[in-house]
Specification:
Helix 3 packs across helix 4 and helix 8 crosses helix 11. This protein has 11 helices and 11 strands. It is globular, with a radius of gyration of 21 Å. The chain is of the alpha/beta class and 319 residues long. Helix content is 39%, strand content 15%.
């Protein structure tokens, strides 16, 4: 069997790191990463290249002239990012996998949202940095999906929903874990109506691996979401099960939560639920149940917490 060359743009933390570890464990091919080098992976067998992904010249100068069986792009945030990568990467690109976001969809009553749902066309009344992020992802998708490019480079676009798991730098599940460790109450919306769904980072990695050189995914867009719909109340119940703790909750109105700047990480006043049926049918993938994925995530959180506590004690002991 021929060894394939895989280039991961990003790949140093969270989802990228999870993918690198999976590909190395599966001996999927020669794994290379390209990023700014701020967080070295230091994983044996992985070749790390550093440079500026927004500059075609930097990409060209810092990557070898190799043909790439798959390029996996975790950190494309604009059409310019896509163009820089495709223009700058030396050698042929045989498959381009772009990690987008399920947030690209406009609000709709036709739930759950599938890949045929209307895409946002203008800014929404949401935090400006989030809106710019989403619109940038939409433009990046459009750049990749141009008709002339389909003939030259098969692409796959993955749209994850709320991503959770090991090394998550976003304060999502860890926001609740921190409160649980302090035995502090968790604020939830008093109207337990809003539903959302997640994707485990290990599932996202497995899906990317399934897509590599898989013609079933060529020139396709897939929502990358678990079929479980979750409310804040159900999420707290899952936290109680995985931790063995009794969690006190305090219900407040959405307006009060916003006014008091309580940083709840999920939607509070409308549903954000997506359908992953297309992906499941095309790739035959089964998602990890939320309770299992969250249990593994909480165990890793506790492991890191104990490790950091031990380091702090050792440091204090040397003072």
């Amino acid at each position: 069997m021929l060894t394939i060359n895989i280039l991961i743009i990003g790949g140093s933390y969270f989802a990228g790191r999870s993918l690198v570890e999976l590909l190395m464990n599966e001996k999927k091919g020669n794994i290379h990463t390209f990023n700014r080098g701020n967080i070295p992976l230091n994983i044996k067998g992985v070749t790390e290249f550093h440079g500026d992904r927004t500059s075609p010249d930097s990409i060209r100068l810092n990557l070898p002239p190799t043909d790439w069986d798959a390029v996996i792009d975790f950190c494309g945030y604009s059409a310019e990012d896509i163009e820089s990568a495709i223009q700058g990467i030396p050698g042929k690109i045989r498959h381009y996998i772009f990690i987008s976001t399920a947030s690209v969809y406009d609000h709709s009553a036709m739930l759950p949202l599938d890949e045929t749902a209307r895409i946002l066309s203008k800014p929404q009344p949401e935090p400006r940095n989030h809106v710019e992020y989403v619109l940038g992802k939409i433009r990046a998708e459009e750049s990749l999906r141009t008709p002339h490019r389909e003939k030259a480079i098969p692409w796959t676009i993955l749209r994850p929903s709320i991503l959770y798991g090991r090394f998550n730098y976003a304060p999502r599940e860890t926001y609740f874990f921190d409160l649980m460790e302090k035995e502090a109450p968790i604020i939830i919306p008093e109207q337990n109506l809003a539903l959302f769904n997640f994707v485990f980072v290990e599932d996202l990695s497995a899906i990317i691996a399934l897509c590599i050189n898989n013609q079933k995914g060529y020139n396709q867009v897939f929502n990358t979401v678990s079929p479980e719909f979750v409310s804040y109340q159900k999420f707290v119940e899952i936290l109680e099960i995985i931790s063995g703790k009794t969690i006190k909750t305090i219900e407040k109105s959405v307006r009060t939560i916003i006014e008091e700047k309580i940083p709840l990480p999920f939607t509070m006043d409308h549903h954000e639920v997506y359908s992953g049926d297309k992906l499941q049918k095309a790739l035959g993938f089964k998602f990890t149940p939320l309770i299992q994925g969250m249990k593994k995530t909480y165990e890793f959180y506790q492991f890191l917490r104990k490790k950091n506590k031990k380091k702090k004690e050792q440091h204090n002991g040397r003072l």
